[in-house]
């Protein structure tokens, strides 16, 4: 979604101030030689300040959101500052090897860097035959007088917990009720939090085009969308929520029948057990 990006110097200055507060608070709390684990792009600039304040600390960073390719990341005006801050870490983790190499490409495009160590992606990761496959992954990088370790760590799913939930009689009963309610129709399920990066509005527009271009699908498929709202303080998302609700109303207004509502939309968080039941009842999970 780089085309949606808007870069304002005053926003960047606020970002720096907030990150500095996190770094100062961490510096005041951490024991000598402690390991500090920082999470995601919201705190990109913490490592640089923290390294300055507490050179004794070991700093690790995990990038939860997808780290983009260099041609996308390089549209950011402050890319060198961000990369410089991340390189203040001792270790940086990403989900998959492709994201590691995206980071390496960005670094090498911004400053001289030496690839010190690498490893084969197989057999842990897919190498060939998928869109983001790689055969090797950089595990150590030198930039100037600093060496930074890199790694890929996919955030997994607690399968045992899911199996235990599915074995419960109340959850099985919920699955039966959901399937009975949907009937012979196909159920497409989308569960996500309210954020434009999740593409919720785009999904609704795509579903609307499906019903337009394939009238034979009308009455045969239901989109169940569960969207966890943002915190009340995050007023920036109110416009997006209004757009989503208007799209739901428009689609249902155009295509609904007495016995079928195309989109079922819930702007609320559901207990884990209910989420599992919905996934089990659906034929398609739309992520």
From TrEMBL:
GO terms for biological process: trehalose biosynthetic process. Transmembrane segments: none annotated. It comes from the Bacteria. GO terms for molecular function: alpha,alpha-trehalose-phosphate synthase (UDP-forming) activity. Belongs to the glycosyltransferase 20 family. This is Glucosylglycerol-phosphate synthase. It comes from Stenotrophomonas rhizophila.
């Amino acid at each position: 979604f780089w085309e949606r990006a808007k870069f304002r110097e005053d926003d960047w200055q606020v970002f720096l101030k907030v990150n500095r507060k996190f770094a100062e608070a961490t510096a005041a709390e951490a024991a000598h030689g402690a390991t500090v684990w920082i999470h995601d792009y919201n705190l990109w600039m913490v490592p640089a300040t923290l390294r300055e304040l507490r050179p004794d600390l070991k700093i690790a960073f995990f990038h939860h959101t997808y780290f983009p390719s260099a041609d996308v990341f390089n549209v950011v005006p402050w890319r060198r500052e961000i990369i410089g801050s991340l390189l203040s870490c001792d270790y940086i983790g990403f989900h998959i090897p492709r994201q590691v190499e995206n980071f390496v490409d960005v670094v090498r495009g911004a400053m001289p860097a030496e690839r010190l160590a690498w490893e084969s992606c197989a057999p842990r990761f897919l190498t060939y035959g998928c869109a983001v496959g790689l055969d090797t992954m950089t595990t150590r990088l030198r930039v100037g007088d600093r060496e930074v370790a890199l790694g890929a760590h996919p955030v997994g799913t607690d399968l045992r917990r899911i199996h235990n939930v599915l074995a419960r009689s109340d959850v099985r009963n919920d699955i039966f009720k959901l399937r009975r309610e949907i009937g012979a129709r196909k159920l497409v399920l989308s569960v996500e939090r309210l954020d434009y990066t999740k593409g919720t509005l785009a999904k609704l527009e795509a579903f609307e085009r499906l019903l337009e271009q394939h009238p034979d699908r009308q009455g045969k498929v239901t989109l169940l969308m569960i969207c966890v709202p943002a915190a009340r303080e995050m007023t920036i998302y109110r416009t997006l929520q209004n757009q989503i609700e208007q799209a739901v109303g428009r689609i249902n207004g155009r295509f609904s029948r007495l016995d079928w509502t195309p989109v079922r939309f819930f702007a609320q968080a559901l207990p884990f057990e209910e989420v599992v039941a919905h996934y089990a009842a659906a034929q398609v999970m739309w992520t």
